Amino acid sequence: MTECIKLEPCSIRECWDRVRPGLEQIKARWPASNTWRPEDIYAEVVGGDAVLYMTEDGFAICTIENDRWTGTSDLFIWIAYAHEPGGMLKKYWPSFIEVAKQFRIKKPMDILADVGGAVHRWPDFAKDVGVKRNRITEIASTHRLHLVP
Length: 149
Known about the structure:
By secondary structure, the chain is α+β, with helices and mostly antiparallel strands. The protein has 2 domains: about 1-105, Gcn5-related N-acetyltransferase (GNAT) (Aminopeptidase, 3-Layer(aba) Sandwich); about 105-140, no CATH class. Helix content is about 50%, strand content about 15%. A 4-stranded antiparallel sheet has the order 1-2-3-4, with helices on both faces. Helix 1 (about 10-30) runs antiparallel to helix 2 (about 40-45) and helix 5 (about 120-130) packs antiparallel against helix 6 (about 135-140). The chain is globular, with a radius of gyration of 16 Å.
């Protein structure tokens, strides 16, 4: 099993010169990320609505999503950047599970499996509601299912 490395929140003000280039690379590589600007991410972290975790391998920006109707919470890894593709999330999965537990998120591995299964079935869902084949393929190409343990 992969070692659990304790993740600590990082001040985006102190790390911005390392974070911004990664955000710009993500935007350049994934056109679907055109709904935000690096400055939006900065503002969310500074405002306390997101948390930045820095590692030697890259960074992750997470939020805690609370469902007011069920009272449950989810750890949402909003953006993850690694110097080596896939390296950070694979290496730090146990650490993110611990972060989820700190926020009292119950059964995080079950949630990951459920989400991974739903994302894996994206093409079927999209086809059922009439999404065009080329758009289904384009969106599916952004899914990084190999990262889900």
